[in-house]
Amino acid sequence: MASSSSSMEAVPPWLELPREITAAILQRLGPIEILTTAEKVCTAWRSVCRDPSMWRCIDMRYADDLWDRPYSLEKMCRHAVDRSQGQLIEINIESFGDDDLLLYISQRSGRLRQLQLVFPYNISDEGVIEAVKNFPQLEELHLYYTNIDAKAIEAIGHSCPLLKSFKLNKHWYRRQYVVCDLEARVIAENMPELRHLQLFGNKLTNEGLKAIIDGCPHLESLDLRQCFNVHFGGDIGRLCLQRIKDLRRPHDPTDDYRFDGKIYDYETSDDDYIAGMSDIDMVSDYDDYMEFSGGSISSLERDDDDEVFLD
Questions:
Q1: DSSP-derived pairing of the beta strands 246-248 and 221-223
Q2: Model confidence over 146-192: pLDDT tens digits?
Q3: Could you give the CA distance from residue 235 to residue 239 in angstroms, rounded to a whole number?
Q4: Between β-strands 221-223 and 196-198, what pairing exists: parallel, antiparallel or unpaired?
Q5: What angle in degrees, to the nearest 10, is found between the helix axes of 99-107 and 125-132?
Q6: pLDDT tens per residue, range 237-256
Q7: How far apart are CA 176 and CA 285, in angstroms?
Q8: b/e string for 70-95 if b means 16 or more Cβ within 10 A?
Q9: Which of 100, 91, 90 lies closest to 61, judged by CA?
């Protein structure tokens, strides 16, 4: 009987792991899994999950269907930023967010070095301009399928003098005779310390490319895939080969590009989706009940922080 009682009270093996190993394991889950599941397993894991060092890097990718998400990604992101207590150095936000969220992050993350925004439909030029004022240490800014214009790019260059890596990636549309070197010229004039530049699907021409080569003398890698207005013959081709160690040309394969490398027709219905409305605008507003997801929270698990997700 004593043996049976002792067996029932045995400490689970994962509780015997050193705290730093437990933290390393839990960090592999990502913030969504930590906040909705892992930290509710036991008090030891909850203690680890609340350590600010766990929140230096926040990857807010949501792999499931955004239409069916049962909680607010915006509230969850704010809470993750709060837990970092100013130690945040890297954050990735995909398919949600607005100007208020970006400003919230910037006001609490003055040490941020890496920022990635993917399909940030509700983030405007004004939102970016205001937020980057608080990112003086930013070294990497990766923007996928945004609507920001040259004015915002100029502000990024002025506010982030340490910027080393910049990505401004778009879809290429089959529109004849559409060329635009404005973004290329603004990059050339305001981001002289760049080492890595990716302009996937941009409308720049050889003139814009020449401006970048001249204005960014430290450039080591340049990705111009699907920039079909650029032609690498003659002097510009030789100059790029001389100056750029890692050069991706307009017709190079896109197999290693994480996002959609499809070339879109101008008239397709997909254009309406890509250019404006996001899934997040259409999700019903029942997402915040019972913290992030359905179900009850025991008295052991609940504390004041749990209330921030409830309306």
A1: parallel
A2: 989 999 999 999 999 999 999 999 887 766 568 899 999 999 999 99
A3: 6
A4: parallel
A5: 0
A6: 999 999 999 999 999 999 99
A7: 42
A8: ebbbbbbbbbbbbbbeeebbbbbbbb
A9: 91
Query: Which one-letter amino acid corresponds to residue 126?
Result: E
Structure-token pair, residue 243: 């100056």
Distances, alpha carbon 253 to alpha carbons 165, 221, 223, 238, 256, in Å? 21, 16, 11, 21, 8
In one letter, which amino acid is 236?
Answer: I
Q: For residue 210, which amino acid is it? A: K
Write out the two tokens for 135. Answer: 């990112």
d(CA 118, CA 59): 12
Q: What is the rounded distance in angstroms from the CA atom of residue 222 to the CA atom of residue 244? A: 7
Q: Two tokens at 154?
A: 């100029």
Would you state the pLDDT for residue 269? 42
Q: Is residue 164 within 8 Å of 139, Cβ to Cβ?
A: yes
Q: How far apart are CA 6 and CA 94, in angstroms?
A: 48
State how far the Cα of 110 lies from the Cα of 137, in Å rounded to an integer: 7
3 state DSSP class of 18: coil
